[in-house]
Amino acid sequence: MPTASKHRSAMDRNITVRTPESIAFSYELAGVGSRFLALALDFIVQILVLAVLFFGLIFAASTIHLSPHHVAATYPFHQLVQSILIGIIIFVNFMIFFGYFILFEAFWHGQTPGKAMMGIRVVRDGGFPLEFWGALVRNVIRIAELAMAFYAVSAITAILSDENKRIGDYAAGTIVVRDSSYALPKLFVPTEPTNNVPREA
């Protein structure tokens, strides 16, 4: 696999990736503010999805009418169903709040809806596309980061990092860049000098 060397400008928070073929690509790192605003937008999307599911379950439950005699006769069965539903609810909540990031970043080119709205994306160190395992690692670590004062430690880590990396980025070997800088620059093709000597008539 090709390797890349990185050079960062301390002033503009840009990162330049140089390939073994001496081709350099420049990326603008996403700032801490834009990253956390993207997180807030994703959180709103997650809450909306959860609300739709919750009210859908309430509506479905309201359409079922059972007599007290029927409930008493099938109490053990209802207990089993209740336990299964609790397990499903826990799984669905996990998928909405953590699987959401894993699946979107892995299969939507390093972006979630919030990141897409903010024009940023996740890539691997060196500018390579994010793969599933990288998305999995950085977002499993997100669980611990959420527990640490609701990303406060991650915010401090990103501010102190030369590449705006939170803890999950260090674990997965990823960076977050602005989408406009992710496009590959056009190659400069020098043109041959023209001879301006007038022709003889």
Kindly describe this structure.
This protein is mainly α and 201 residues long. The protein is 55% helix and 12% strand. It has eight helices and five strands. It is elongated and about 75 Å long.
Question: Radius of gyration, Cα only, in angstroms?
Answer: 25 Å
Task: Give the strand content.
Answer: 5-15%
Put simply, the count of helices is 8
Distance between the termini: 60 Å
Shape: elongated
Contiguous low-pLDDT stretches (5 residues minimum) are 1-5, 7-12, 183-191
Number of domains: 1
Looking at this protein, list some descriptive labels.
201 residues, mainly alpha, 3-stranded antiparallel β-sheet, two-stranded antiparallel sheet, 12% strand, disordered N terminus
What's a quick, concise take on this entry?
With 201 residues, this protein is mostly helical.
Task: Spell out the blueprint of helices and strands.
Blueprint (H helix, E strand, L loop, with lengths): L4 E4 L5 E5 L5 E5 L3 H31 L5 H6 L1 H33 L5 H6 L1 E5 L7 H16 L4 H9 L6 H6 L1 E5 H4 L19
Antiparallel strand pairs: 1-2, 2-3, 4-5
